[in-house]
Amino acid sequence: MNRGQRDQQEKKQEDTVAQFIQERFENDIPARSLTDGVTDYVFRCIQGPFAGNFIYLNLTEEGELIGSDPQADYTLLIENAGLSAQHTKINYTMDDNQYGYFIKDLNSEKGTWIKTKPGHLIQIEDEQIFRIEDQVFQFRLIEDENFDVVVEWLARIELKKVIIKLKSYNIKTLKDIKQLQPNIIDEIIDDEDEKIRFKQAFDTIDQDFPVDGKQKTLLIYSITQDEVLAKVKWSGAAITRSSEMGEISGIDKYGVDCNQKFEMIIQFYFNRYYFHVTPKAPGQIYLKLYGNYKLSPDDIVNIGNLDFQVQRFNTGLWSDKGTRMTMEDRSVISQSIPISRYFSVSYFAVFDGHGGDQCAQFLYETLGEKLKEEFMNSEEYLDDTEFFYQYIYEKLVYIINDIDQQFWQYRMNDQDNNSDSGSAGVIILIFGTKLISVNVGDCRAVLSRQGKPVALTVDHKPNEEKERQRIMKAGGTVDGNRVNKKLAVSRAFGDFSFKKETTGNMDIVTVNPDIRVWDIDFMVDEFIVLGCDGLFDMFNNQQVVEYVRERLIENQITEQDPQKVARQICLDAVEISKQQKRGSDNCSVIIILLTRGIINTDKIFLQ
């Protein structure tokens, strides 16, 4: 049975399809009304001798006590992994002031460490200890009598070159700068852009910089080497791998000998020092834990020789290139996008590249950051909208089209790349309990509701009547279920030889997405499966749901591992394709569990 026959059979069996989000505009809701529902965080070991093992964190008062003493009463006993007898504890707290999972170190010998997240701004505290791979450092804030506030302020706004002119007016303090008359500023600075930058910093000088008192220099002290690595003032600095120092310009830089590439940027804002690690080079940077720390999805916790990831949803991901020469698929799991103070947001995606991996790789690297950027830096924040569905629809349509244009510009700037790469893509965003699916092409997402499939997406294929009419109206043809006898999908990222950038007319292949919505009910909704056509060419929606469900319920409720099942179904799809076609496409799958586990009702009935 080919895919077309399977899909026809599926249409007879399956009536449930997620609703287009536009259908909810008439009865829209404010974003602040969304909630997370009840989800139990997962604590999954991702590095060390117990990698792959996981537990669901308890919501009980006792919480999770983690240590290595076999005689003690632990909820998680871990031996031979460098843990202290009593190492750390995780409790769920819920009161009027705060709620969530909190972790605390129990005076362990090696400590409990939290890995820094790329792009997250972290306030630097005095005597705070951090680690870069196996080297330990400490931040130290010291009063500095030789601190020249005028020089540092000018350096901070990248106008250090006017220091001589400024000091000729007997300017010695920030208070003196505040007394400057506009005509003097015009005399000191000639360049109009620099003048604007000076005046902007001038207007916010009270909130950004301490006008009174002794100023503090930030020392970065190497505990491992017993020496000062860096002295940092208001102009900031970059700490990076020694061999990469030449790649950074315009800022003081200091090198650390280590294996992985990393980039730590230190800056001064609002009278405090902060740092962040860049997404392009996050490295292995951990902060030592003191007191209680609120866990959030995607946090990585180091205890002993083990790294654990905190997951909002228990997930599995597997990819296989099949018999193809190259792997053109890309997959993304981001358990937390910090864009709301009311509810959690998670992002999952599978991108199925064709004509090379350039487009899928570009989406993999940029789309997640684009989502954060648009939701955080818009004129109206997500939390403030009174029309959640319309807001989400308009934002996502803009983001998808804009990222496609960014890829076009990227291709134009890359003189060495003449390929017309493209990609299908399926994206799942979970806003609290609202599931939003975004589909371009023939990747799919399906949800299991008590074993019954819910189609979260519908394929964009050229033989579908609506798609065929649009293609022909734009000047294209549909022949042998392909656009212009070439492309097997009617919508895609990239593929600019089919778009107005190349044709000069209408888009024969469009990037406009279908966006659908589903209300998650954690009592009956079990899991979500995302996959490329390498999976869904071999299994229809019902078969995928049955396959995943059957293999999950082979294990007890809290031991059902989506990672193992993702691997199984991906490898089986590749093997079936080899038998049927004497070859196989790339195959990628993500499985997202919405519950601690599925109850095997047949087993209960037999018992």
Automatic annotation (TrEMBL):
Its main location: membrane. This is protein-serine/threonine phosphatase. It comes from Tetrahymena thermophila (strain SB210). It is a peripheral membrane protein. Belongs to the PP2C family. Its cofactor is Mg(2+); Mn(2+). Residues 314-594 form the PPM-type phosphatase domain. Residues 64-114 form the FHA domain.
